[in-house]
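In response to a reviewer's request, we include the raw inputs and outputs for one of the modeled complexes. The two entities were modeled together in a single run.
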Amino acid sequence: MCNPRRVRVRATRDLQRTWADEVRRQVTRRGTVAGEARIREPLAADIGAPTLAALATVLERSDDWDWDGERFTHPLDGGLITLDPVTRELEIVARLTDEVAVTGEARQAISGTVEERIDVVGEGVWYDDGYGGWTARTAREEAQQDAERALAREADALVARRRAEAEAREAGRLDAAASADADRAMAEATAARRRELEAAAVARLDLVGVQGRNLFHAVLAEAYRDAIVAYARSHGAGDVLCTDHDGVLEIQFEMPA
Amino acid sequence: MRVRVHFRYNSATGEVEMFTVEAVDADVSDADHDRRHDAATTRIAGVVDRHPLIDEVVSVEAAPEPVETVFPGRQEPPESEGRRVEEPRRG
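The model returned the following structure tokens for the whole complex.
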């Protein structure tokens, strides 16, 4: 076997190929939806001013109630209770949340015709001594076949490039359309789920309300105690008897009137 | 006049179960006694309630001497004569 010799064949084809495809874009939106139901009770209409003042102090010193600069808040199982010391309003909120995910989609049919001349070179190898049966004749055949394969590859690649270019031209509009579709779907899904959660929250409000009132009654007991004891001592009361057993607060004292 | 105050609040129900203001050394011959007792009761009840309703408990045997003031009055009146303040109350 000696060094291989090569045969090159140049092939040209006038390509005319029509193609058609569909471009799709999908956009997914995810979010949290909450449904709430609430009860508001004005405290100032019923509770005496000294007790209301004491109530704010009780909440301030409590580790269980959070102060966010405007309101005292305590979480509940499935909601929360808040007390606004300015409006003196108690609010109990039943709150349910859920995750919502939707997918928006846009489609566009694209098509085109590629009309271009393709030039390629095919190559074949042979040996002077005909090693392996590779002769000048087989080399020419191989070069011709290689050129045919190269023409086919180049034609496919050219169509793919034109298709990608067409898809890229539509990409922006399709992305925008898919996003808009996702936004619409998200708005609809969110509104529908919110209505369901709100209905469920209304049904749950009694249960959450019991939790909230129990918490409030406990801090109100402290406020009553502080306010009454302070009043008694500032008005000359002697011994002030104050007991708290199983949530029942009793205060007894005598004072001049 | 001295008054004896008895307050009871049940945090399980949110009810003020009792709030009595009893005149313990009242001079019943004092014509101003009732007014002073009412005024004292109103002031003390105002600590816990913005608009307390005052109810007088009067004994049948010893009427009309005011002896006791009760608030809010969910309890049965004491056996002794007096006055009671009553108001449904929730916490």
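As requested, we also summarize the result in words. The beta strands of chain B are 2-10, 15-23, 56-57, 68-69. The first strand of chain B starts at residue 2 and ends at 10.
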